[in-house]
Design a protein that fits this description.
This protein is mainly beta. It is about 5% helix and about 55% strand. It contains one helix and 19 strands. The strands form two sheets. Strands 10-11-12-13-14-15-16-17-18-19 form a ten-stranded antiparallel beta barrel. A nine-stranded antiparallel sheet has the order 4-3-2-1-9-8-7-6-5. It is globular, with a radius of gyration of 19 Å. The two termini are about 15 Å apart.
């Protein structure tokens, strides 16, 4: 049975979008965990984010409070009107969402935010790149944001403490992928398949999806930099293993010869995971985002 069978996606870009945003309502307590360019944790800032639908069916207010150690609380507020900030922020039927740069331009920063949700737990990831006049973009920082929705406060301190191990990735993962095109065409659902295996010189990854811009990717080989980072042999892409049972792809410097593919994956258990992929073309334009719900087979 389709994992998206019970979800309405025919109006995902309008009326349904508001319903998916609603899955994020409430007070979320967590922390902003920032990592250095070598994937080492450098800071952690407690946070409280509240999303409230103050005018049903019309308006939501987001309030984010962050309190760095020894400093005053910093508050940010944001308004969200019906049906949402599409296509800049794409919400999925699970409540997951993704937003990021629409284009890659010289001097401008380039980044993305990913969010995956499961009941009263949520994990977000932000990665930001700094642009130069020449058009190069280098990685500035990666921030992981594990959160729990109140009143599940007992779980907050347990999130984000244990690093994901490479053995969790090994195997074949299969499920369904829901693809949202930047052109706002009708969303598409197809089979997704992702495989990781150990090889003599490191790690080999391959993936296939029935929908999306890169439906079949050649097998990629990675070599270990350290216990937290794996480097692709034929591209500047790196695979990072982070706390909270998540992995992500980053680029120390974004490639100019082909479009980057940014991926964020949350392992809910040894047999179940969620994965968001954000694709760009060779000119630096965003072309689409996919959410995959997969199990180990």
């Amino acid at each position: 049975m389709s994992q998206f069978a019970g979800a309405s996606i025919s109006h995902l870009w309008d009326s349904d979008q508001w319903a998916y945003i609603r899955q994020n309502l409430g007070e979320w307590r967590g922390s902003f965990i920032q990592f250095s360019l070598d994937a080492i944790q450098v800071s952690e800032t407690p946070s409280v984010l509240t999303l409230n639908e103050d005018r049903p069916g019309q308006h939501m207010t987001l309030v984010l409070k962050r309190t760095p150690q020894g400093k005053n609380t910093h508050t940010t507020e944001r308004d969200l009107g019906y049906p949402g900030a599409i296509p800049y922020i794409c919400f999925f039927p699970t409540g997951a969402f993704c937003q990021g740069a629409m284009h890659r331009r010289a001097w401008s920063s380039f980044g993305s935010e990913f969010s995956l949700l499961s009941d009263n737990r949520r994990i977000r990831l932000v990665q930001l790149y700094t642009g130069t006049a020449s058009g190069d973009h280098t990685l500035d920082y990666v921030t992981l944001i594990p959160e729990c929705r109140s009143p599940a406060t007992a779980e907050i301190s347990e999130i984000g403490k244990t690093r994901l191990g490479i053995d969790t990735l090994i195997g074949t993962w299969q499920g369904e992928s829901l693809y949202l095109s930047a052109t706002m065409e009708t969303p598409l659902v197809g089979v997704s398949r992702w495989q990781a295996e150990r090889v003599e010189d490191g790690l080999a990854l391959s993936q296939h999806a029935d929908v999306g811009p890169q439906q079949l990717t050649p097998q990629q080989r990675f070599t270990s930099i350290d216990q937290h980072r794996w480097q692709a042999v034929d591209s500047p892409q790196q695979l990072w293993l982070l706390p909270g049972d998540v992995s992500c792809t980053v680029y120390p410097q974004l490639p100019r010869q082909h479009g980057p593919r940014l991926e964020f994956c949350w392992y809910l258990s040894s047999q179940q995971r969620q994965r968001i992929v954000r694709d760009y073309d060779a000119t630096g334009d965003w072309i689409g985002t996919s959410l995959a719900l997969e199990t180990r087979i």
